[in-house]
Amino acid sequence: MAQFGPRTAVRSVERALAALDYLVDAAPRAVRVTDVAEHLGLSLAAASRLLATLAESGYASRTIERRFTVGPRSMPLAGAWLASLRAAAAAPVALASSVTGESVTPVTWHPHQERGAELSARLEEVGTSFPVWATACGRAMLGKMPAAQRRKMLPADSYPRLTERTLASQAEVLDRVKDGERTGLHLERGEVLPDLWCCAVALDPGPSGEILALSVISFDEPDTDRRVRIHKTLRYQVREVAARMAGLPPAAG
Questions:
Q1: Single pTM value for the model
Q2: Residue range 11-75 in CATH 1.20.810.10
């Protein structure tokens, strides 16, 4: 059970911070209200109100199973889990970059990101983020979600044109996701930046629903030989990452 300070401390703040620490330590595993109540020595009602407050402020997120995990604003605090994912992907990513001669980027998604507006794929090469539906990496992750969740993640309308090639509707995005799942590779040609080419593959969801994708990014479309090499390397290395992630220790808690 968590231990709190003297009565002069702001007890509600202490409890909120203790709950947040508990969510961070458990990530990526989502926890029940009863787990938090037991850990903090609270009633179920009090623990439920506390978690609801954290969720409303973005520091916690409620899953479809009515459990709680880290939220968009507290995700950076889940360092141990994020570090384990990066470590699992490091060697395959380095090898894929060496073989292809291209920039290879791992991107992760966790079920706490329930709304399409919160889901984006960051391209470190240009230092910005783009809507998930506009990127090959985002569509690769969408392809690993159940169909109902996939639709929930996408806006019904409001697909702004980033370039002349940007997909303009939910139907177009869903068709492109299906094409990528059928071929095993998700492609992007000038949809977020005119000269940007990207190829991406994603792993099946992990035990807590987390999804990791690998993408190769180039600022000119590769010729046929380079594309074949990139496709083959990505397909192989994503299996290597999956094998390494399968060997990670279970989440604490």
A1: 0.64
A2: no
